[in-house]
Amino acid sequence: MNISLISPEVASSDSEPMIISASLKSPSVKVTERHHHSRGQLAGTLQGLISIEVESSQWVIPATHGIWIPPDTQHSLLGSHGPFYGWSIYIQKSECNNLPNKSCMLELSTLLREAITRTMTWNNSELQPEHKRLMAVIVDEISIIPQVDIALPMPKDIRLLKIALALSNNPSDDRNINEWSVWAGISRRSLTRRFTNETGFNFTEWRQKLRMLKALELLVAGRPITEISLNLGYDNISGFIAIFRRNFGVTPGNYQKAMRNNRPWRNFNDTII
C-alpha cells in the first residue's frame, strides 16, 4: 500500500502550525516512494519494525526509536514488516535550525513519545497557547535526546535485500548461509562478500543485530524474556541474555524494568536492581 500520511503540499508548507502530526494503522504492509519535503520529519512505529531509506542508507527502525529526517532530504519507506502502525511529525523548516542536520536514529524519551501522542488527539481543532507550548517542548526534546548507533543498514543488492527483508519479517528463521544463498540465487562467496561490503556486518552479525532490535520492541511490550528468546530463534535463554547484554550493556530484564519505570536504560546499573 503506497499512501503518504499527509499530502506533499502540506509536508512542504512552512506556514503554521509548527508541527503537523499524523498516524496510520493498516492491516497491509505500507510503502512510500522516494520523495522529499521542506518540513523536517520524525518517523516511527507504535509496533513492529519498518525499513526506511534515507538518501543512500537503508535502516531498520524498532518501535522504541524514531528516525529524524532533516528538511529537503530524499527518503522512502521501503516497507513495514507486517501490518503498519506508524506515526510521523512534520516540523516547519524554520524551526529545524537547532535540530540534527543529518539523518539519525533517536532514542525516544517517554516525554517525547507522550507529547507526540498528545498532538495526535488534536485533529483539526484550533490551536491554543498550550498546544503551541507543547510543540515547542517537542522541538526542544528532539534537539537534546541521544542519537544512537543501533541503526541496521540494509543491503542494496536485490538478492541480499530479499534475504534481509525475509529475516526482518521473521527474525527467528534459522536457515544457514548456504540455504539462504540457494534461496536467493546467489553464491555463498558472493553473499558473504557483498553482505559485509554493503552493510558493514557479516551475515551472522547482521542477523543477530536484527534480532536485538526486535527484542527491544518485545521487551517494551512487556513480553516474557523466555518467550522473546524462543520467538527470536534462540535455543536457550542464557545465550539470548548474553548477546543482548553484549549489544546494549544491560540484561533484558533490567532493560525492561528501566522502560517500565521510565528510566534511561543507558544509565541503568545492573547492580542496583
From TrEMBL:
Quote the SUPFAM superfamilies the UniProt record gives: Homeodomain-like, RmlC-like cupins
UniProt keyword annotations, A-Z: DNA-binding, Repressor, Transcription, Transcription regulation
Q: In what residue span(s) does the HTH araC/xylS-type domain sit?
A: 161-258
Annotated Pfam families: HTH_18
Named from the GO MF annotations, one term is: DNA-binding transcription factor activity
Keyword check for Manganese: no
Q: What is this protein called?
A: AraC-type DNA-binding protein
Q: Source species, please?
A: Gilliamella bombicola
Taxonomic lineage from the root: Bacteria, Pseudomonadati, Pseudomonadota, Gammaproteobacteria, Orbales
